[in-house]
Amino acid sequence: xxxxxxxxxxxSRFLEAGGDVLWFIAAALVFMxxxxxxxxxxxxxxxPKQARLLVAKWESRKDTTSWHAHRxxxxxxxxxxxxxxxxxxxIKTIVAICPMIGLLGTVTGMVNVFEIMALSGTGNARLMAxxxxxxxxxxxxxxxxxxxxxxxxxxxxxxxxxxxQELADHMPHH
Length: 174
Fold this sequence. Notes:
Blueprint: H1 2-18, H2 21-59, H3 67-85, H4 88-120, H5 125-170
């Protein structure tokens, strides 16, 4: 229990030092990772069942060689590709936006530094330090948030393309 209290205290001080912009980064991070976990769940558990059913449906067709059958196959594969890629663009967009939110924190922190300089002059380094901290922490947090999703979003996109190709390979047309 003491560990959780210390962790909560550390996170609270970090959020306070970084300013209100960190809450937006945290919200984007939670949303992004929720979507990533959903996609991982889909690829691991839901998609394999759907793919098996679709392949079985294709194999149970009497006609797999006509022009009409080929268009049905293409439509089914296209529908599965759409399901596989669902949400990936949103994840990639959040990855791209996180550093921008961090830069917003940098701007607001620097505005605070300039306000302190205007009120107290340039000689009070202690007062300026809080503003500089508020300017650098959101930038770092935005970059870390983006990096945490960058690799996995690329991997998810690759997996979606591989699954779509494998599905097409399992539905032969003659």
